Amino acid sequence: MTMHQDLLDESALALKQAYAPYSQLFVGAALRSANGKMFSGCNVESGAFSIGSCAERNAIAAAVRAEGAGFQLTAIAISATDRAGKFLAIPPCGACRQMIKELGPNAEVLFLGASGEIIHAQIGDLLPHSFQLETL
Q1: Which residue, 74, 105, 132, 133, is most buried by CB atoms nearer than 10 A?
Q2: pLDDT tens digits for 18-72?
């Protein structure tokens, strides 16, 4: 059993609720806040492709809605499958990396690696150069 196994399990449950009729890529994310609470989200696609939303950002939005502007992310897990239910190696996209880093500058990110192993990475390693509030 891996550290944050509960997040990995919840992310796998969340992907089952994804709305992905176009890509057939089902993604779920589950995160833990500094308050110890768990929040999850799934991807939601649209025929106007650019307005779809990622599972990671949907989980973050749910957490901010529940905890307010003081929300702090400590860990997030991402799970993805194809239409046949085969798990896929899907790290967070660039937009999600930016959002994770803003709300959890030291967050741990877990996702399936290309060889089938669970990757445990710090968000700073995944996004070493990000937009910073103080420089905008």
Answers
A1: 74
A2: 999 999 999 999 999 999 999 999 999 999 988 999 999 999 999 999 999 999 9
The torsion angles phi and psi of 106, rounded to 5 degrees, stand at -120, 20
| Percent of the chain residues topping a pLDDT of 90 | 87
Q: Let me know if 56 is a catalytic residue.
A: yes
54 neighbors 80 (Cβ within 8 angstroms): no
pLDDT tens by residue, 63-77:
999 999 999 999 999
Q: pTM score > 0.85 for this model?
A: yes
What is the full DSSP assignment across the chain?
--TTHHHHHHHHHHHTT-B-TTT--EEEEEEEETTS-EEEEE-B--SSGGG-B-HHHHHHHHHHHHH-TT--EEEEEEEEE-TT--B---PPPHHHHHHHHHH-TT-EEEEE-TTSPEEEEEHHHH-SS---GGG-
Architecture of domain 5-135: 3-Layer(aba) Sandwich (3.40)
